[in-house]
Specification:
Keywords: FAD, Flavoprotein. The protein is of the alpha+beta class. It has helices at 5-11, 21-27, 36-42, 56-68, 119-130, 146-152, 159-162, 229-241, 257-261, 285-293, 323-331, 346-355, 386-398, 411-414, 421-430, 442-445; strands at 17-18, 49-51, 73-76, 93-96, 103-107, 110-113, 132-134, 173-177, 185-188, 205-215, 220-226, 247-253, 274-280, 299-303, 336-337, 340-343, 360-361, 363-369, 372-377, 380-381, 402-403. Bound molecules: flavin-adenine dinucleotide.
């Protein structure tokens, strides 16, 4: 089936379409360049056109028309994904959803919104209208959309208390449009949510989202300095574990990250200082101070409710999660990163810290996981080519650390490295021609793919002729 892009564009011409080459290029890109491997593999990718639907009816029209003319559709929110999720591997149509940005309902403990709303704007409105806020946001909240977070993200600021997006109760309901001759609108709750959440828009387009909320607080942002990486890590873990202390963020940056890459922090730390970035609810500050007093050398050097620094550092969460790497990249363009799951084993983290001293700087985020905690690692990795990165990943895996490989663009390799049968089954039902974000789901393209041979997958779906 050869896509007929011209016919699809002609039929959709009454919608808002971008044909300007610079806009198309711009909207065909996300943060894929975080990875030197993806940069080399994906830099050339470009859609044929970009459409900006404003309503669900327009989304249905785009999907129906592109289905008829066999045109691939890759959805885009804020375009901040760092696994190349929103890159149109097979060209065709990029459907840009930030025009679908209405808040439909705010109630006690929930919000219903369209997918294109920018998360920061949603959070500000929630706070103003109801004194509530999102349980968790990506550190890119000022640019990222709610739909992109659900379809491409995993958790973030708030996960120290609420766990990951995939945890039960962290998404209430999703409305999804299929890509068929007659697209259907389906409502998913409970077990069905996993069909489309974190599926990169490969099997349906999310047009309405109901999310649970938490009470909003004037969070106290702090930087806390430590002499030892172990103490900083133990403190961050215990802070998240304390049942009576409410926090939203507990990040650990091994020395010399803060001194080397955090411009507005640099004057207040040495290159030997290890730093924690935390967000604590105001009513929990007394408990926080008591806990900190139990950790040798722990010292609050910045707090947002009592700023003594000449230059305001901005929100502390914009130093955490993937922003740590972003700040480092501003200084050294060849750096990259990994995404690691260490679980709650601090000895394993210390072993990795010693073992990989010549390869990376440690950066940890504490997350609630089940009844306990897990440390997520987003270490800053010194310049490496593909083979060296694969080797570093293999060494981590040998140590029992799971890797969400950020140097691959497929769902499975960036995720749990296995077929998600629910997502695959739903793709068969909802996208029979395989036109939604093609090339991102290995299970669809290569059913016999051997995950034990993780590093051999390098196939890019060829761009069809227009
Ligand atoms: P996009 O990049 O536009 O899209 C992401 C994926 O979702 C794509 O596959 C796209 O096709 C699909 N998609 C978008 N909208 C829809 C829809 N309506 N229906 C179906 N599919 C759709 N991620 C985290 O989880 N936590 C973090 O803390 C975090 N921090 C980051 C920091 C930096 C500096 C960077 C570069 C990235 C970070 N990310 C993080 C990754 C990313 O920013 C988030 O996942 C963000 O929520 C993605 O939203 P977006 O609107 O930019 O999505």
């Amino acid at each position: 089936m050869k896509p007929n892009v011209a016919a699809a564009m002609a039929e959709l011409s009454h919608l808002e379409i971008d044909e300007n080459p610079a806009t198309i290029r711009n909207k065909s890109r996300d943060f894929f360049w975080y990875s030197p491997v993806l940069k080399a593999e994906m830099d050339h990718l470009e859609a044929d056109f970009v459409v900006n639907p404003k309503t669900e009816e327009e989304v249905i029209e785009v999907l129906k028309t592109c289905y008829k003319h066999d045109v691939p559709v890759t959805c885009r929110g804020g375009g901040t994904g760092n696994y190349g999720q929103a890159m149109p591997l097979a060209g065709g149509c990029v459907m840009h959803l930030t025009g679908m940005n209405k808040i439909k309902e705010i109630g006690a403990g929930y919000v219903v919104a369209e997918p294109g709303i920018i998360i920061k704007e949603l959070d500000e409105e929630l706070k103003k209208a109801s004194g509530q806020e999102m349980r968790m946001i990506p550190s890119t909240a000022s640019q990222a959309s709610l739909g992109g977070f659900i379809a491409g993200g995993s958790g973030g600021v708030g996960s120290a208390n609420w766990g990951a997006l995939r945890d039960l109760g962290n998404i209430d309901r999703l409305r999804v449009i299929t890509m068929e001759a007659e697209p259907r609108a389906l409502e998913f709750t409970g077990e069905e949510l996993h069909r489309v959440s974190h599926a990169y828009g490969t099997n349906g387009i999310i047009t309405e989202i109901e999310m649970p909320l938490a009470p909003a607080y004037e969070w106290v942002d702090m930087f806390v300095r430590f002499d030892s990486f172990r103490t900083a890590t133990e403190f961050a873990g215990q802070l998240a574990a304390e049942p009576g202390i409410l926090i939203k963020l507990a990040s650990v940056y091994a020395a010399p990250i803060a001194h080397k890459y955090f411009q507005r922090v640099k004057a207040h730390v040495t290159e030997n200082d290890h730093l924690c970035g935390v967000m604590v609810a105001p009513q929990s500050m007394a408990g926080f101070q008591t806990l900190l007093s139990r950790y040798e050398g722990g010292e609050v050097i910045y707090r947002s409710d009592d700023v003594k620094w000449d230059r305001h550092p901005g929100p502390v969460f914009e130093y955490g999660w993937n922003h740590t790497t972003l700040r480092a990249l501003k200084f050294e363009k060849d750096l990259t990163y990994l995404q690691v799951r260490y679980g709650d084993d601090i000895e394993k983290i210390m072993k990795a810290y010693e073992t990989f001293k010549d390869d990376l700087y440690m950066h940890l985020e504490v997350m609630r996981e089940g009844a306990g905690l897990s440390f997520a690692g987003l270490p800053i990795v010194f310049p490496k080519d593909k083979a060296q990165l694969d080797d570093l990943i293999a060494k981590h895996e040998a140590m029992g650390c799971m890797i969400f490989n950020p140097h691959r663009y497929t769902l499975e390799e960036g995720g749990r490295q296995s077929t998600d049968q629910r997502q695959l089954d739903f793709k068969r039902e909802a996208d029979p021609k395989g036109l939604l974000n093609p090339g991102k789901m290995i299970a669809w393209d290569e059913p016999d793919f051997d995950y034990a041979d993780m590093y051999s997958y390098a196939k890019i779906t060829p761009k069809p002729e227009a």
